[in-house]
């Protein structure tokens, strides 16, 4: 029996602008298995956050399908049930939390909207349990977001996302705004919760070292296209796309005195508005040649390892 929770088929999301259509997500396909984490990595503006928002129906797809438990959810309006089963943790907990609401009010809101609790006592107990789950001390129950540090604010965001017992959580750069020591605490918390409750995550980040730490499989995105997709270990051991190689070269080596050559990405970024039918990395790639003036297809180079580059295997 298949354990696929999410199946994305040829998904596109375009935005109309005064200068033409902005291709934020362009023909992206992948699956996420139940209880696993798919890391989605790429620079800011590559379409990874838009992709997450389309999958959980915060944005409408332009074309393509998202299947949840095998059911096409793109074809129908978003329901309360969709919102219960699919949640999001946002990058900046400060701007995603209502500054006029206390911790308990923020966590209570989704429970009240979905009429989850039968009584005030039931609601209070549920809030206490959620705070305990994410490691927030009871003394913060009546605190406001501005009174807490970044790590505690992100714990509120996680508690709120967990309140309705979702199956699938899109984590949109959940640790990028935090100090490195706090990042590790939040990542460990998310991994413990996944192990305990079998959550399925789509983890969006620009940071390759974070994605390595948390993902079972990874997709690398560049200007709306998926350029590489593979099991996480395979991607780190056999990185094939020039853009993925450049991202990986930016990970610092922890050993004292160890050196690694950093691949700098230079050159002008192709406009995502009506982009030409050439490789979208063409203007910044050190290996670009005439063949790259045609858009490369994503091809399976090794079992479950897909790459979109004309020169894969030659460079
Ligand atoms: Fe570089 Fe060409 Fe490969 Fe694109 S297709 S990544 S330009 S070598």
What would your notes on this structure say?
This protein has an eight-stranded mixed beta sheet, with helices on both faces. A four-stranded antiparallel beta sheet has the order 2-1-4-5. It contains ten helices and twelve strands. Helix content is 30%, strand content 24%. Helix 4 (103-113) crosses helix 5. A hairpin with a 2-residue loop joins strand 1 and strand 2 (20-33). The mean pLDDT is 92. It has 315 residues and is α/β, with parallel strands linked by helices. The protein has helices spanning 48-55, 80-85, 93-96, 103-113, 120-133, 150-162, 180-197, 208-214, 232-237, 242-249; strands at 4-17, 20-33, 37-41, 63-68, 71-72, 86-89, 168-172, 200-205, 217-222, 225-231, 299-302, 305-307. It is globular. The longest helix has 18 residues, at 180-197. The chain binds iron/sulfur cluster. Iron/sulfur cluster binds next to loops. Residues 242, 279, 281-282, 285, 287-288, 292, 296, 309-311 line the site of iron/sulfur cluster (SF4).
């Amino acid at each position: 029996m298949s354990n696929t929770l999410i199946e994305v088929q040829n998904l596109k999301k375009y935005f109309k602008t005064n200068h033409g259509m902005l291709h934020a997500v362009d023909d992206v396909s992948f699956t996420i298995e139940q209880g696993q984490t798919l890391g989605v990595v790429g620079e800011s503006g590559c379409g990874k956050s838009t992709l997450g928002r389309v999958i959980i129906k915060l944005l409408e797809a332009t074309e393509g399908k998202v299947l949840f438990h095998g059911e096409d959810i793109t074809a129908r309006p978003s329901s309360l049930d969709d919102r219960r089963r699919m949640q999001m943790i946002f990058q900046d907990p400060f701007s995603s939390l209502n500054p006029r609401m206390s911790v308990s009010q923020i966590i209570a809101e989704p429970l009240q909207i979905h009429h989850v609790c039968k009584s005030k006592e039931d609601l209070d107990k549920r809030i206490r349990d959620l705070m305990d789950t994410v490691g927030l001390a009871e003394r913060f129950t009546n605190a406001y977001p501005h009174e807490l540090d970044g790590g505690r604010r992100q714990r509120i965001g996680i508690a709120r996302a967990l309140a309705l017992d979702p199956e699938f959580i899109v984590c949109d750069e959940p640790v990028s705004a935090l100090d490195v020591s706090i990042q590790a605490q939040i990542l460990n918390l998310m991994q413990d919760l996944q192990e305990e409750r079998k959550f399925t995550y789509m983890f969006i980040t620009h940071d390759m070292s974070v994605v390595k730490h948390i993902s079972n499989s990874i997709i690398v995105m560049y200007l709306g296209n998926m350029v590489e997709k593979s099991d996480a270990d395979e991607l780190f051991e056999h990185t094939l796309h020039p853009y993925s190689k450049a991202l990986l070269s930016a990970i610092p080596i922890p050993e004292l005195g160890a050196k690694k050559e950093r691949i700098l990405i230079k050159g002008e970024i192709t406009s995502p508005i009506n982009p030409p039918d050439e490789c979208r990395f063409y203007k910044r790639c050190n290996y670009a040649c005439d063949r790259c003036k045609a858009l490369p297809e994503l091809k399976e180079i090794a079992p479950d390892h897909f790459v979109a580059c004309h020169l894969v295997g030659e460079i």
